[in-house]
Amino acid sequence: QVELVESGGGLVQPGGSLRLSCEASAFALDYYAIGWFRQAPGKEREGLSCVSGGRGNPYYADSVKGRFTISRDNAKNTVYLQMATLKPDDTGVYSCTLTGTPYWGRGTQVIVSS
């Protein structure tokens, strides 16, 4: 059964960093595009970044470009989202998805606050 499990969220001060993980089960994610989304309080879900299958080309929303880095470890079947220079506006629930399918993880909470 396809499953995506996020981890790595938490409370961080503005300017800090976090690394989120999205571990996949029941399929080899290196063949598929994986995306990261954020649901901020009172806002619509926002697409942040995506890594393509195969060559692993990264894509970023303007809101995170230059601050977030997406990467993939095929041996661990995991996609990472390295987040730096975090701002209070980055607060939200971060979820990963097998792009173009109904498969989503449950999400991990990130709170950026002093």
Residue-averaged pLDDT: 95
Uncertain runs with pLDDT below 50, 5 residues or more? none
- Span between termini: 40 Å
Number of helices, where a helix is a run of at least 4 consecutive DSSP H or I residues: 0
Label the overall shape.
Answer: globular
Rg calculated over all Cα atoms? 13 Å
Largest sheet: 6 strands, mixed
Beta percentage is: over 45%
What's the β-strand tally? 10
Structural class of the secondary elements? Answer: mainly beta
Helix proportion range: under 10%
Could you give the order of the helices and strands?
A: EEEEEEEEEE
Strand order of the largest sheet: 2-10-9-4-5-6
Could you walk me through the main structural features you see in this protein, from its secondary elements to its overall organization?
The protein is mostly beta strands and 114 residues long. It is 0% helix and 48% strand. The chain contains no helices and 10 strands. It has a 6-stranded mixed β-sheet with strand order 2-10-9-4-5-6, with no helix packed on it. A 4-stranded antiparallel β-sheet has the order 1-3-8-7, with no helix packed on it.
